[in-house]
Amino acid sequence: MVSLLKRIVGDTPERAAEKLSGQLVPQVNALEDYMRSLDGAGLSAKTVEFRRRLSAGETLADLLPEAFAVGREAARRTLGQRHYDVQLIGGAVLNDGKIAEMKTGEGKTLVATLPAYLNALTGDGVHIVTVNDYLARRDPVWMGPIFHLLGLSVGCLQHDAAYIYDPELTNVGKGGFQFLAPAHRSEAYQADVLYGTNNEFGFDYLRDNMALSVDGQVQRGRRHFAIVDEVDNILIDEARTPLIISGPAQQPVEHYYTFARLAPRLQLYDDYEIDERSQAISLTQEGIGKMERWTRVDNLYDTENFHLVQYIENALVAQVQKVKDKDYVVQTGEVVIVDEFTGRLQSGRRWSDGLHQAVEAKEGCKIQRESVTYATITLQNYFRMYQKLSGMTGTAVTEADEFYKIYGLEVVAVPTNLPMVRAESTDLIFPTAEGKWRSVVESIATRSQSGQPVLVGTTSIETSEELSERLRKRGVEHQVLNARNHEHEATIVAQAGRAGSVTVSTNMAGRGTDIVLGGSDTDREGWQDEHQQVVNLGGLHVIGTEHHEARRVDNQLRGRAGRQGDPGSSQFFVALEDELMQRFGGDRIKNVMSWTGLKDDEPLENKIITKSISSAQVKVEGYHFDVRKHLLNFDDVLNQQREVIYTQRSRILAGEGLRERLLEMLRTEFEQLTANHLQSRHADDWNADGLLASLGQICPLPTEIDTADKNVAAKERDLGTEQMQTLLRLLLLKSIDTHWVNHLTNMENLRTGVGLHAVGQRDPLAVYRSEGQRAFAELTRQMQREVTHTLFHVTLSPEAPGQGNSANGDAAGSGNGPQNNGASRSGRRRDALRTPVSPMAAVNGSRTVNAPRGGRKIGRNAPCPCGSGRKYKRCCGANV
Amino acid sequence: MLAIYRFVSHIPIPGINTAQLNELFENNQLLGFLDLFSGGALSRMSIVALGVFPYITASIVMQLLTPVIPSLQQLSREGEAGRVKINRMVHWLTVPIAVAQGFGQLILLQQSNVLTNVGFSGDALLPTVAAIISMTAGTMFLVWLGEMITERGIGNGISLIIFAGIVAGFPGLITQGFLDRQDVLGIGFFVIIGVLIIALIVLFNEAHRRIPVQYGRSIFRGGRMYRQSGGTYIPLSINSAGMIPLIFAFSIVILPGTVATYFATNTGAIGDVARFFADLFNPTSPIYWVLVFILVVIFTFFYTLVVFQQQSLSENLQRNGGFVLGIRPGRPTQEYLNRVIVRITTGGALFLGFVAIVPYLASLVTDVQAIQLSSTSLLIMVGVGLDTLRQLEAQLLMRNYEGILR
After folding, report:
1. Of the ranges A177-186, A373-382, B47-56, which one carries the lowest mean pLDDT score?
2. Same domain assignment for residues B50 and B119
3. Which CATH number characterizes residue B59's domain?
4. pTM score, two decimals?
5. A162 bridge partner residues
6. ipTM of this predicted complex?
7. Do B233 and B369 sit in the same domain of this protein?
8. How far apart are CA B309 and CA B73, in angstroms?
């Protein structure tokens, strides 16, 4: 019955994988002997042959079996690693634009080479997206030989550099990497296969759309194919934080310190309340009263004072909800966010809307300036631009729904090479946290004495250190892995599988770490014996000390055990005092527990409770999915506008028909002005003087509509055609950029407030759409106005370096009145833009480029990015 | 979708005498009212005779219960997941209501001799159960249809279905009016009144008081500290209750009269009392109008306040970091908003009451009885029409982006 249903419904994930293994694998295997008979040149000749056949009209699907066979053979020769059959299946799933769920240790990196090779044959470039810079550097070096043998180039994107794989390069200087030759970013983008993090790809896209000349752009126009590693992390967890390129804005900072001092004096329940589900904090009447007394203000919510409210709320959130060593760490006087899902430090990322500053004030750090958004995109919308998108991860099935609904990605579970043997015990549930920790310590001690390696997962840096302290007192030797000592990560992980080793880790040891039983230095003498010993003891044992909100994160931790057919086991210890239990349905379980009358460290092992925990997790996951989907609905509106603006911007960059556009803009502007002033039907009421005055602002009188052409021609004569082109281009770009930035802010504010329309029984989304459209129309009109009014008042003066510095530094560009400094400093701009710095800085003479993720800080003595050639501290950075 | 609905509404349930049925409907207020919601399906006694009315009843019941029952209240605050759950409850609730209403209607029809054989014994059992089941199924089908429209298309599917039903009945009504009466002047007058009322309804439907809301967060954005774009206000609608008070009021007012009519044929005291009530609640009597007016006003207040409390606006506002300038969040804001809503609802309630009785006044003046220009249907039409228009506009705008370079 069930199978019948399945047949009707269509391919289930299992069936899709079965089908592939039935058809594809024999085909590839049949080609294996032939491929082995070829020499190196013969293999790389295959690439040429495939490319020829592609241009002759064959499709990628036709080439798939052969290309996979070639890729497999190349891997065998260069790395000595031959793709398993299941890895072929994984590769085919990726090539289909789906998500391949592959367990830990199944060799995802190797799998990706096959579809990457196949799709790179078209010459449009394949992007392999990794979670961090380290992997983006490791993988091309590791997999580079395969592609090199087959005659494809491999690129690597880093935070502030780019490389091309070069097998000859073994001797590198300080700071360089073996086999990676430094290259310009745009060269890296020309590579057939490019490795990089999602942030780099996204930010490059945004920066490209801020570039002032084609030379400043690095990406190719088309986004052909992307393989996203750890796809659930990138497309789901990370997708909650949009990429933002921002610059500084002026805000007073004293308030932060004031309220950071006051916030600890407020009491929970008396002065403020926390909503359980949304975790939102709100002040009570008493709290407001106290604040008003302390700040000597009559009414905080009055027109003069309301700007203080946000400082108070931020200070309170910083005080109460942002916990040091859990949510952030303080490093060299800076507040650095710790990623909730991976436990890693996220330097460069900042909380928005003043929260980060509030935390800085709380910790007594130097407060960095508020920022204004220059460009933004969500990862969802960035990745949806790819013609074909695929991904791989160990945990996708729980999120299959979201992948399908948002990205149209199906999830296919790829079978493991060897059957997985991991014993998963039901949770042990304790009434109190104290009891839980005591039992955890005991359990660790017993296991490690027997020689079995143990990996303990904790949810925060703080708890990992507390547990470490307990273990020390108990006399258990162990290693701690958290964001504080991440430089030792590789060594700790390498040893984690050795007999008797105990590793306490945050979520860092979840995703992507590969723990080899007996230690990862497999060439070592006696490794075989130790490996066997550990296997006999039951392999790695994973202990989870708290459930995470998302099941995926739990599963990632569990997945460290039972790698590649090794034995392994896992168990979670849970206390009713855990955050998740308190927030969701803890009371009911607590009642049950109190009936049973258990003592603190007597655990309850109960399937029903375990189930209710995972149903609580499903609830939270659903909640977050809704939030993300909601956000995306709204972001779609902005996305559409962004596409329009960016397309037009790139057309201007390319210099297409600039003059015609300008003339048309002039014409419409004249028409609109005329219509405004001559509204009345009676000639007597016409405001002819007003009209003439307005027109006079545009260009010297006498002006008639048909002389606009002549004026433009005259201007062109003065400047020379090429200069005119440059002027026009810069003028248009500048106007797009400043107004677009304003528009982004407006749209953000609109989004905050639009939810209120639900009260009036109107769909907020519909209101947002129409209001957004109105704002966009206004944006267009303002741009037109600015360009037409500026054109005849500016000239290009390449030899006036000082002028740019007098720019007022108003990064947002208030948009009132003509701003001609942008156009007047164009001579140097192209040089300035060769470096991948936000061009906004160059346009407006603003102070820093501060991309929250991936932006780089400018040293005080470094040359100023505005291109003036002065030191930063003397130029734009003078007031920082 | 709507075509399917219109088609289905012409499938009759088994064992109905159509001719007698029509006759009945011309003489009965309550049924006429119900017919409105089923879009003429009731007077044809089709399988969707009940229309989406049971669903509407169910959702109103749920809405009124939500503030009363704590567990429901909690669900309603759980966001999307909770809403889904409540929605499912509404669906379940619809079934028994549909069954009850279906049965009630069969009884009603039996009493007017359209149907024979209603009951749960012997021969009557099978046809009765079949009729009830088919009617319930028909209702659920419509609800599903409506939800499909909501999901795939534009606007609220359920209201669209009601809307379609009303509009579909229009041509019939108008031709009927013209054929019955040669009084062109009267009809012209009537049409003018109709247009005026519609204009009035549009006006009041759209009228709202804007309470400006300030978000602390927004001052951190952009260089311009105090500028806010136009969208940040609470639109408190004058008529936030919509047509629901009208439905309530009419249902209550019609009921005693209808019941009384059945007993009016009795002799003796019961008959006298019944006749008295029947006269009192006769739609042509001024007492009836006054009663309708008063009830509508009361219900408007009642419903608006219930719904308003439920939204716990001030709490949500505070949680999102918003506040009304000059007024503290929490209780003071709540009190302020309540004061405003009471004040503007006064106007709204009087307006609704007026709209409710204006058709009667109109037919009194023009003497055109045939056209029952129901205020409720007008209200629904205007509401749904405007909503759909807005949705369409937003959709169209999405396709109509051009930058500065055309």
Report:
1. B47-56
2. yes
3. 1.10.3370.10
4. 0.73
5. A157, A183
6. 0.71
7. yes
8. 11
pLDDT digits (tens, 9 = 90+) for A18-55: 776 778 888 888 888 888 888 888 888 889 999 999 98
For the residues A351-376, what does the mean pLDDT come to?
81
B chain contacts of residue A293, beta-carbon cutoff 8 Å: none
Q: Which amino acid is at A162?
A: A
Where a domain ends, among B133, B168, B203? B168
Question: Is B173 a member of any domain?
Answer: no
Distance between A280 CA and the closest CA of chain B, angstroms: 6
Same domain, B130 and B210: no
Instruction: Say what percent of chain A tops pLDDT 70.
Output: 79
User: B267 CA to chain A: closest CA distance, Å?
Assistant: 51
Indicate yes or no: CB of B221 within 8 angstroms of CB of A372: yes
Q: How many domains does chain B have?
A: 2
The token pair that represents A430 in the structure block: 């304790």
Classify residue B100: in a domain, yes or no.
yes
B313 contacts A766? CB cut-off 8 A: no
Looking at the fold, whether B131 and B47 belong to one and the same domain comes out as: yes
B6 with B145, same domain? yes
End residue of a domain, out of B119, B140, B168: B168
- In this prediction, residue A622 carries a pLDDT of 80
Residue A501 Cα, gap to closest chain B Cα (Å): 44
If asked whether residues B183 and B137 sit together in one domain, one would say: no
Share of chain B above pLDDT 70, in %: 56
Asked if B272 and B134 sit in the same domain, the reply is: no
The pLDDT, as a whole number, for residue A554 is: 87
Structure confidence by residue, pLDDT tens digits, A230-241: 888 888 887 777
**Inter-chain contact B215–A750, Cβ cutoff 8 Å?**
no
C-alpha angle A591-A597-A601 in degrees, rounded to nearest 5? 105
Interface touch A284/B393, C-beta < 8 Å: no
Chain A residues in contact with B392 by the CB 8 A cut-off are none
pLDDT of A344 > 60? The answer is yes
Per-residue pLDDT reduced to its tens digit, A58-70: 888 888 889 999 9
- B83–chain A Cβ distance below 8 A for any pair: no
Question: What tokens appear for A121 in the block?
Answer: 């044959």
Cα–Cα dist A567/A420, whole Å: 8
Whether the predicted pLDDT of A710 surpasses 60:
yes
Strands (E), A833-875: none
B404 vs A780: CB contact, 8 Å cut-off? yes
Q: How many helices (H) and strands (E) does chain A have?
A: 33, 23
Q: Does B396 touch chain A (CB under 8 A)?
A: no
Domain with B190 in it: 179-406
B73 and B28 in a single domain? The answer is yes
List residues bridging with A197 in a β-sheet.
A130
Cβ separation B394–A746 shorter than 8 A: no
> Is residue B174 included in any domain, yes or no?
no
CB-CB neighbors (< 8 A) of A812 in chain B: 222-224
Q: What distance in Å separates the CA atoms of residue B352 and residue A65, rounded to the nearest whole number?
A: 73
Task: For residue B220, give the nearest of A301, A370, A769 by CB distance.
Answer: A370
For B387, nearest residue in chain A (alpha carbons): A762
Establish if B311 belongs to a structural domain. Answer: yes
Least Cα separation, residue A646 to chain B (angstroms): 10
> What is the rounded distance in angstroms from the CA atom of residue B30 to the CA atom of residue B32?
5
Cα separation of the two ends of chain A: 71
Q: Which residues, in sequence order, are CB contacts of A840 under 8 Å at separation 6+?
A: A210, A245, A247, A374, A737, A741, A811, A846, A849
